[in-house]
Write a structure and sequence with these properties.
Blueprint lengths: L8 H7 L24 E5 L5 H9 L4 E5 L3 H10 L8 E4 L6 H4 L5 E7 L17 H10 E11 L2 H13 L3 E6 L14 H8 L5 E6 L7
Helix pairs in contact: 1-3
């Protein structure tokens, strides 16, 4: 279902100079200034902002940078955190295809891909956030020991992503085809995710890194 347009969206985004980064390319190499620990996490496709907001509060020492191209979704997330925006929360309202211009090489610790659009049509494959061109961008901006954490309810996208990462020489660190079967207090549950859980649908999750795990 397509979201109804929010006539107040652009004004909300323009007014939130406390956390919206309007020229993210100027921040390349400097994102760690929003992190007490130096850790920088990025969520691509943050939607209505539940994960971004709650994870930023769960891990106040780390910088959490949300990326959302849909202005209506971005505005909703900003409205949600009007009274509880912390200094470690920043938002980029733009398309993630430009991500290499916003971050320097080896700048990000973790990239979160939560319930990304599966773009099921064959002609739209290049739009998937786990398509090889995106994976190449992630390689450049992640730290050598950085990782990508993906969660999805879409089995076909998950299968596609496992193959795509493998073909791009990423190392699979963790994988689960029913992630929420166990409790994970370190990873917040969004409203979107809880709806799938209520229906009994499994949540698929995987973690990849660029570096190969050393053998003992």
């Amino acid at each position: 279902m397509r979201m109804r347009k929010k006539p107040w969206a652009k004004d909300m985004i323009a007014s939130r100079t406390d956390c919206v980064i309007s020229e993210p390319e100027k921040m390349a190499g400097h994102w760690s200034q929003f992190s007490k620990s130096g850790e920088v996490r990025v969520e691509i496709g943050s939607g209505k902002g539940d994960y971004w907001i709650n994870m930023a509060h769960l891990y106040p020492e780390a910088a959490f940078i949300a990326i959302e191209k849909n202005t209506d979704c971005a505005a909703i997330s900003l409205k949600k955190c009007l009274d509880n925006t912390s200094d470690n929360m920043k938002l980029i309202v733009d398309d993630a295809s430009k991500i290499e211009t916003w971050f320097n090489e080896n700048e990000i610790d973790v990239i979160h891909l939560n319930f990304s659009d599966p773009w099921p049509k064959k002609g739209h494959t290049k739009r998937r956030l786990t398509y090889r061109s995106f994976l190449d961008s992630y390689k450049r901006i992640l730290k050598p020991d950085g990782k990508i954490v993906m969660k999805t309810d879409n089995m076909k996208l998950f299968e596609y992503s496992l193959v795509s990462f493998s073909n791009s020489d990423w190392y699979l660190r963790e994988v689960s085809v029913d992630y929420r079967r166990d409790e994970h207090p370190e990873d917040v549950i969004t409203e979107y995710e809880s709806n799938f859980m209520a229906l009994g649908q499994p949540i698929y999750r995987a973690v990849w890194q660029l570096t190969k795990e050393e053998e003992n």
